Amino acid sequence: MNKIIAAFDGLKSIDTTSDYAIYLSKLLKSHLTGVFLDDKSYTSYKIYDLVFDQGVSEKKLHNLKEDDNNKRRTSANEFYKRGAANKLAFNIHHDEKTAISELLHESIFADLLILSKGTSFNHHEEKYPSRFLQDVLSNSQCPVFLTPDTFKEFQKVIFLFDGKSNSVYALKMFAYLMSPHINMPVEVISIKPMDENSHLPENKLLKELMKRHFSNISFTVLKGISEVEIINHLQKEPLSFVTVIGAYRRSMISRWFKSSMADALVNAFEMPLFIAHNK
């Protein structure tokens, strides 16, 4: 039995992430741990909410803290009810230290991490991906299943393959977790420059590996710019899908100049992403 962890900001809605967590836990017959990141330095209120004419109100601070505690308890209770109603093997962790360090530590002891694409642990509105999410995707010690804003069961698997080890590693991680439990179409997409041939990179070795894990496989080679061609191709896909990608190992500086393919896909589609990279 695999161990799945689903991470939650208990001060916000847990709906879609818990929907995917329950769906995957049942699909994979896995144990599910709800990780509630109750970082005490993170609150739903801002410092100026405490200030009034005579200074800082201690009473108001107490009430706001209690409101946050109630929200966290309500979120955890909701997760518990959903787990019990679906007869899952599950438990709950409350991690009260710094959210990013707690979650990365939890990821060492997990087979899969489920996380909402909107997670930020920041008072200020952040564009996707938040700094928190970048840190998780760059440093997680297990694959990450990134959830969109709405829940939909996926009917197809799409692997993005560039011939490099990271994409093969992501493929293998997905196969080890999922292939014994799913029977759906699988498409491998590769992009090549216009001046190169249309042969699939590492054609023989890749097909040998894929056929050991999946039965209904197709291979697509496109020509052009990766971000453009992949998004154009996926826009024509009639089935709901999960995209598997080996991504997010670049330095912070390089991300300022070129967005990740994962970022482009999340911004273009309401779909889940399975992201894994070898260190």
Structure description:
The chain is α/β, with parallel strands linked by helices. It folds into 2 domains: 3-147, Rossmann fold (3-Layer(aba) Sandwich); 156-275, 3-Layer(aba) Sandwich (Rossmann fold). Helix 5 (165-178) links the parallel strand 8 and strand 9. The chain is globular. The strands form 2 sheets. It has a 10-stranded mixed β-sheet, with helices on both faces. A two-stranded antiparallel sheet has the order 3-4. The protein is built from 9 helices and 12 strands.
Total number of beta strands: 12
Percent range for helical residues? Answer: 25-40%
- Average pLDDT over all residues: 87
CATH topology of the largest domain: Rossmann fold
Low-confidence stretches: 250-258
User: How many strands, what sense, and barrel or not for the largest sheet?
Assistant: 10 strands, mixed
Which CATH class of the largest domain is shown? Answer: Alpha Beta
Q: Provide the spatial order of strands within the biggest beta sheet.
A: 5-2-1-6-7-12-11-8-9-10
Helix and strand run: EHEEEHEHEHEEHEHEHEHHE
**First CA to last CA: what distance?**
25 Å
CATH architecture assignment of the largest domain: 3-Layer(aba) Sandwich
Separate helix tally: 9
| Derived structural class | alpha/beta
Shape: globular
Estimate nothing, just give the exact number of structural domains.
2
